[in-house]
Design a protein that fits this description.
Elements (H helix, E strand, L loop, with lengths): L2 E4 L2 E5 L3 H15 L15 E6 L5 E10 L14 E2 L10 E9 L6 H18 L3 E9 L7 H10 L9 E2 L4 E2 L1 H4 L7 H7 L2 H8 L3 E2 L3 E4 L4 E9 L5 H11 L1
Parallel strand pairs: 6-7
Antiparallel strand pairs: 1-2, 2-3, 3-4, 4-6, 5-8, 7-12, 9-11, 10-12, 11-12
Helix pairs in contact: 2-7, 3-5
């Protein structure tokens, strides 16, 4: 059972319908704005994780969809938007990380640290060989993120054997569009979503295109992280947080 406390924050699985609603409420605030519930058909198959402050208020949440192998990847949320045929031959357990969000009023970096600590414990407990999901940039315009996309194109594209292909009707093909652009490293780092930055620091990779998601008002890239490829020093640091 996942329960861990670090400093002011506690990470735990949602155990009741009320817990799941608390996560859905935070998701609505972060992704759609204002009060409400962000609900979809994938929620029932996922384990939901809440990170709460010392007063018990949710400050972060995400959900995990466990898959026995790549043969089940068609069940994932990401498979709605990306052709993931290449990953069907991945022969280890996988987990899709989705709907990750941090309350807009809470910028403490320890929140992201405990989130990754919780993910590390989950991965170790379940033998997951790959984490994957959609990493989102706010808004549907690419212009504010050109340096970030150019950096992804230059250094972080998926290995050919795993590369997602285009499926969604509206995409931004940044690897093609920005083939000649040299990224400004500082601007790229500043405009990169924190979750994606952490994925990349651990050896994660992305699709060569971003999906334009009008419903969620985001641009997102498919992101994969092979657990066995995480640099040993990073893996040790994560396990220190996981406890």
């Amino acid at each position: 059972m996942l329960t861990m406390t670090k400093g002011r924050y506690t990470a735990r699985f949602a155990e009741t319908p009320g817990d799941v609603m608390a996560a859905q409420s935070l998701r609505h605030l972060c992704f759609r704005g204002g009060p409400g519930l962000d609900v979809d058909d994938f929620d029932t198959d996922c384990r939901h994780v809440l990170i709460e402050d010392a007063g018990g208020s949710p400050v972060c949440c995400f959900r995990l969809l466990p898959l026995r192998s790549g043969g089940e990847i068609g069940r994932s949320y990401s498979a709605q938007y990306y052709d993931l045929t290449a990953l069907e031959c991945f022969d280890k357990p996988m987990a899709e990380l989705g709907r990750f969000c941090i309350h807009p009023g809470h910028g403490d970096p320890d929140i992201l640290r405990i989130a990754w600590g919780a993910l590390t414990r989950y991965v170790d407990d379940t033998g997951v060989g790959m984490l994957f999901g959609c990493s989102s940039f706010k808004g549907v315009k690419a212009a504010p993120y050109l340096d970030a996309f150019a950096k992804l194109k230059a250094d972080h594209l998926a290995p050919h054997r795993w590369g997602p292909r285009i499926k969604a009707p509206r995409v931004y093909r940044f690897a093609h569009r920005l083939a000649q652009r040299e990224p400004d490293a500082k601007r790229a780092a500043l405009s990169m979503p924190p979750l994606l930055r952490t994925y990349l620091l651990m050896g994660g990779w992305v699709s060569d295109h971003a999906v334009v998601d009008d419903d969620m008002n985001t641009l997102h890239v498919f992101t994969g992280l092979e657990i066995g490829a995480i640099p040993p020093a990073r893996a040790r640091a994560l396990r220190l947080v996981a406890g």
